[in-house]
Design a protein that fits this description.
The complex is a heterodimer of chains A (168) and B (351). Chain A has 9 helices and no strands. Chain A has helices at residues 4-26, 29-45, 47-52, 56-69, 76-80, 96-106, 110-121, 126-133, 137-164. The longest helix of chain A is centred in the last third of the chain and has 28 residues, at 137-164. Mean pLDDT of chain A is 76; it is low at 71-88 and 163-168. Chain B has helices at residues 19-44, 99-104; strands at residues 108-109, 114-116, 124-131, 146-153, 161-164, 170-176, 179-184, 187-192, 197-202, 206-207, 215-218, 221-226, 231-237, 240-241, 243-244, 254-260, 266-274, 280-285, 294-295, 305-309, 315-319, 327-330. The radius of gyration of chain B is 22 Å and the shape is globular. Classes of the chains: A mainly alpha (168), B mainly beta (351). At the A-B interface, helix 1, helix 2, helix 5, helix 6 and helix 7 of A face helix 1 of B.
Amino acid sequence: MGGRDLIDELYDASYGRLVVQMLALCGNQADAEDAVQEAFVRALLHRERLAHADRPEAWLRTVALNQLRNHWRHTKVARRLLVQVPGPRAGLDLGPDHVALVAALQQLDATSREVVVLHHLAGLSVSEVGHQLGMPEGTVKSRLSRSRARLAGLLDDQHDDREVEPRA
Amino acid sequence: MPDVTELLDYTAQVRRPSLDELERVAVRRRRRVATAATSAVVAAGLAIVLATAPLGTRGASPAPVAPEPSLTRSLPPDPRIPTPPPPDRTTGPFPTLTPEEIRSHPDAEAPRNSIPVTAAPGVAARVWSVCLADCSRDTLHQEGELQEALEVSSDNFRTGALHPIGATGANISHVIGDWFVTDGFAGATLVGSGGESRTLERGEPVVVTEIAGPLVYGVQGVAYVDLEARVLHPIESPDGSLWDWWGASDSWFWGSVSLADETGRWTRHGLTWRNPDGSFGVRMLPIGGGRSGFQMPRTGVPGTMAAIDFGWPRMMHISTDYGATWEVRETPLDTLSGSRLPPDWRSWPRA
């Protein structure tokens, strides 16, 4: 398999999940959708690569992640190659806590953010995250631990701010 | 504090465009890759990897076949040549212009950059273009909206020959002597400064075990030109593009290259770049197989490129002089996914 059947299945099953993962990474739904759509366009362009991938969704995620990681859309050449899917985008109706969570994630350093997203949202094990990011498992664990603590602190601060705000 | 995994609850809210729409984008992409690459090539002055040795898997190097010259020197723009008025819609359809009509069009854009060939003084190519409508991001996928013609010269454009590129653009690479290859979705063609053109057939992908030439940049990426058989062979790696310009996404044109062994397993990685004179440079680095452990940070400085080897300890191979010299630095962990080369990298310990 490697044609539309595989991609159809992946598209139905993975698109939304990947967008949410990329949203957590970049904090911007439009950029997240662009990155995921770019991944699927590449999949359509290179069906044989996807067909030979052990884990097609991981392949797509890596492509999408690389788009965000490299800030590729800022290059002159790449701008001409942007995915152009017409029509308005529907914004996700994130609750206030989750808006705060996405905002807090953006305050982590990029590596920690990737560790958190790959582990918690993509469901990769610690060793898989380590393999993908090229870091020892111990480092992944410490990054996760520190990131959780940092997120908790950031969200607590925001919670406190919201409570203080009415009095200001 | 909300749990990070709660974000997955929003998965069902994400609205997908139809996959057919993405398929259409992919089709347009196949076309536009050629156009965009042409622009990149011209803007950057990209030319060639020109070497006399054959690809490792290709056997003896064939002697280039010089097609019989049949000179058809191009004339200066003729004001009598009628040029069609621009369409009043951005959707076309757009007329197909001849190379001469493109160059003499009132809206023709003079080539800002040419493709010089260091190995052959006087040999150069440049692209004339005319935009028949808007040519913005929103409309550029309209076929025929942007039309281009290639001018090839062997005497620094005192004379030159115009060649069609096709409505969807083409990649342009120098091959040998005053010969260039244009490769677009309309096909691949060998073109010369005397106006000659020879069609190239598309061949089977080949796996490269050594870097050699002649190589060109084509619709399917870097390709090997078998001049004797007039066949263009795309170069493949077992798990993706052999050449990865996207990985760098930098302010100048450089990227990665990966070599495979006979079984198709990656064995080495390196960097490739465009020199100021338009030629390619290639440097294989002591980074082994396993692409997941290799990344390229953006440098933002022409001539400066770096590859981070995600081994342990993490190492960065960097050159600041177009590959003339290289150094290896022990790299902090937090540069893992940094998309920009940190300004303080010189303070990192030498390996």
